[in-house]
Amino acid sequence: MARKKRKRKKRQKSLDPSPDRINALVNLYHSGQMSPAEQACRELLQTYPQSLIILNLLGAVLQNQGQLPPAVQVFDKIIQLKPDDAAAYCNRGLALTNLGQLEEAVDSCDQAIALQPDFAQAYSNRGIALKDLGQLEAALDSYNRAIQIQPDYAQAYNNRGNALTDLGQLKAAVDSYNRAIQIQPDYAQAYSNRGNALKDLGQLEVAVDSHDQAIQIQPDYAQAYYNRGNALKDLGQLEVAVDSYNRAIALQADDAESYCNRGVALRELGQLEEAVDSYDKAIALQPDYAQAHFNLSHVLLLLGDLRNGWPEYEYGKLIKKDSRRVLPAPYPLWNGEPLVDKVILVTAEQGVGDEVMFASCIPDLINLHPKQIILECNSRLAPLLARSFPQLDIQDRRDCQDVDWLKELGDIDFQIAVGSLPGFFRQQLSHFPARRSFLVSNRKLRDKWRRRYDDLGPGMKIGVSWTGGAKGSRKRAEAPSLEQWLPLLRLKACFINLQYGDHGQELRQLEESSGVHIYDWVDVDPLTDLDHQAAQIAELDLVISFDNATVQIAGAIGKKTWVLVSAPPFWMYMLDRLDSPWYPAIKLFRQTEAEGWVGVIEDIGDNLLREIHNHGEVTGEEEVTFSTIS
């Protein structure tokens, strides 16, 4: 009987290349050779088109190179070949996040988690997308879940720190970054992120050290140099900060933020032309970069280039939460059209001091003879503005998004923000009017203050305000201390407190330590009642103030005012002037870097001695050499 021949099984072709070829490809990827790695992946896929290993590597390479749409296509192909591939969904989610398709990214990570509930990386990637969506608490929960699954997951701790930073929980963020570094001591990104949180905590020197550690680990880490520059700038080490920004730019020439912040440091160094050049480069890289436009406007206005400064200022205002170029209402923006028989709405924006300064343009707007001007303003300014401009319809400031109140006003033809008016009426210095004042204080309140001042006896009545800026701001830190004012406060005059906020304890301590008394009344607080403050100022002989809102009120009502101007100055004061075109009643005393506030106080002291003498209250004994406290 004949033996049957066995059928030889056909050998199945492998879906993947040999382990040696895969290892070689992995080595290319980990050594950072992305272009050769991509080429090798594509060549191998011609022979092994369904190799999930090679497709995953190609997706990772493309994502690393920033080729995000092709990376998503690769992950989609993997999912098509293997619908239960959780890693592909996870990686796809990260690529979608980097593309800005955040909701789709969360969905992709959720699919990965549904397929593999203990997938720590999917939770972490999901957290990144949620954070970018602004869902910070949900992002934090996702990172916590990743860490619960994988307690040694350094990247999840780093990402968790980022969410905590955005939530303002800075100390907890530092703890999270520290845990990431403990797990992975060479984690450069965690060091730099920790540095940012430390900077926000005000621990600037420690922040710089943290960025230095990141750079030591990764010498080509452009973002760490940028972050280090920010911390050094806040420390006041401006030249070193510029060097750090330069290093970031050398490593990443298309980084608009490094150019912009370098411009800030250069401006504070007084290198204004160089600052303009840096801002110009930031804007060339990112034309819609509002912060760079705003910073550029400040330097141009400081230089007196008003014609070019105002358009940049207008663009840059969009960055400020309390600044509105246009209300969410159907009124066209006024662009200089004739206003005869037209109704124009002028909207409030920015701080009280800015509103006062820009209100100096209201008389110019009145001169265009509109049928009606509706002026929205901060409620503290409403009585003062209503008295000063009785022909206007004054409206207390509303919530930025609330427009229901406009329905009561009837037809409106145009709208414009008050901070946009100088772009039409102050394009060159000759456009500033010579009027000494434009706000009118309350006569009845003035009588009250005149009686109070008369009760103090003879001598000049001088209002003082010695600080400015928000608490914790650099401006507040650079203001002269009250102790530095002592050489002035010891002169024979009555000094009146005009400083906004509660400074009672500070004034008591000054009197206990020096014997100097500054008169203070608790029934006036500029933070709640500017009409009262304007009347108080109107009855003084002189105001001496650091650059703050007190200066704006005093200048607007035409009171003789001396201003301590820091270096570099606020743009309103321009350069090399002893006066301000905004307020003819103001005289400027400019700080120099070499002398700090010493020279300013001495200069004011010499002028004040003459004022007191002319007022008839000084004796020969007081005509002594003026000395200051450094």
Task: Explain briefly what this protein structure is.
By secondary structure, the chain is α/β, with parallel strands linked by helices. It is built from 29 helices and nine strands.
Indicate the CATH architecture of the largest domain. Answer: 3-Layer(aba) Sandwich
The CATH superfamily of the largest domain is known as Glycogen Phosphorylase B
Q: What sort of overall outline do the alpha carbons produce when their principal axes are compared? A: elongated
Largest sheet, in brief, is:
5 strands, parallel
**DSSP strand content:** 5-15%
CATH C-level category of the largest domain: Alpha Beta
**Radius of gyration from CA coordinates:** 32 Å
CATH topology of the largest domain: Rossmann fold
Describe the protein's topology:
Layout: H1 19-30, H2 34-47, H3 52-64, H4 68-81, H5 86-99, H6 102-115, H7 120-132, H8 136-149, H9 154-166, H10 170-183, H11 188-200, H12 204-217, H13 222-235, H14 238-251, H15 256-268, H16 272-285, H17 290-302, H18 306-316, E1 343-347, H19 352-358, H20 362-366, E2 372-377, H21 382-388, E3 393-396, E4 414-417, H22 422-425, H23 443-455, E5 461-465, H24 474-478, H25 486-489, E6 494-497, H26 504-514, H27 530-538, E7 542-546, H28 549-556, E8 561-565, E9 586-590, H29 598-615
Parallel strand pairs: 1-2, 1-4, 2-3, 5-6, 5-7, 7-8, 8-9
Helix pairs in contact: 1-2, 1-3, 2-3, 3-4, 4-5, 5-6, 5-7, 6-7, 7-8, 7-9, 8-9, 9-10, 9-11, 10-11, 11-12, 11-13, 12-13, 13-14, 13-15, 14-15, 15-16, 15-17, 16-17, 17-18, 19-28, 23-27
